[in-house]
Amino acid sequence: MISAYPVPGALLGAPQARTYTYCFAAGTGIDTPSGPRAVEELREGDDILTADGRAVPMLWLGRQTLVKRFRGARAQLVRIAAGALGGGLPRRDLLVTGDHGMVLDGLVINAGALVGGAGIDLVPLSRTPDRQTVYHVETARHEVILAEGAACETFVDYAGRAAFDNYADYLARHGAGWLIPENPLPRISAARQIPWHLRRRIGLGRAS
Predict the structure, then answer these.
(1) Collapsing DSSP states into helix, strand and coil, what is residue 24?
(2) Any idea what DSSP says for residue 190?
(3) Spatial CB neighbours of 203, under 8 Å, sequence gap ≥ 6
(4) Most exposed residue of 38, 46, 77, 127, measured as fewest CB within 10 angstroms of its CB?
């Protein structure tokens, strides 16, 4: 797999050849019809709210352990401070992996490409746990859901499920042949690709 999440020091540079990681930190509030729930508390079959107001069932919750010793800078999560995306969103600080797509103005933008905006940064390695578990929500389609109120993507087949700790559980429940239709929104994987109006909104600096 080729990941477009740039490592620190190369946020405006060329894509890096690395493994995709699309996940939420533990404690992230995912909007459901009964209110926000911590991502790690969701269970198969639970309804999740989409950005356009539908309730869709969760098919599977992927769980992945990030080990700092082996991943180095790739173990760092992106912190999007409360309100950093505009309109008071996210409601609370949101922690996601750099490849996770945030949805802004009809674009899926990898969180790593947003680093450098006002209130959007990488959690320092010194504050990154030696081991941390992150989670990804899978639904029948590639959906736009709400994490701390901010629009973001669910699982899509760019990322191999085999990377998740509980892949054997997935196979037992669903088998190996399930493919997820990707939504048609354009994806942006580098800061230089972000339109100027969005760069200005999040305080990312001058357009290139």
Answers:
(1) strand
(2) S
(3) 117, 118, 119
(4) 127
Question: Half-sphere exposure of 1 toward its Cβ, with a 13 Å CA cutoff?
Answer: 17
**DSSP 8-state symbol, 197:** H
What is the number of other CB atoms lying within 10 angstroms of the CB of residue 93? 16
- Specify whether the CB–CB gap between 117 and 200 falls below 8 A: no
pLDDT reported for residue 206 = 56
- pLDDT for the residue 83: 98
Divide the 208 residues of the chain into consecutive groups of 10 and give the mean pLDDT of each group: 33 39 91 98 97 96 92 90 97 96 97 97 94 94 97 84 89 81 92 95 75
Nearest to 164 by CA among 139, 182, 144, 138: 138
Q: d(Cα 182, Cα 205) in Å, to the nearest integer?
A: 31
Residues 48/42, Cβ–Cβ less than 8 Å: yes
**Distance between start and end Cα atoms, the chain:** 28
Tell me the C-alpha distance between 119 and 77, whole Å: 14
Facing residues of 175 across strands? none
The pLDDT, as a whole number, for residue 77 is 96
Backbone angles phi, psi at 55, to 5 degrees: -105, 120
In residues, how long is the chain?
208
- 22, 3 Cβ separation under 8 angstroms: no
**Strand pairing partners for 64?**
134
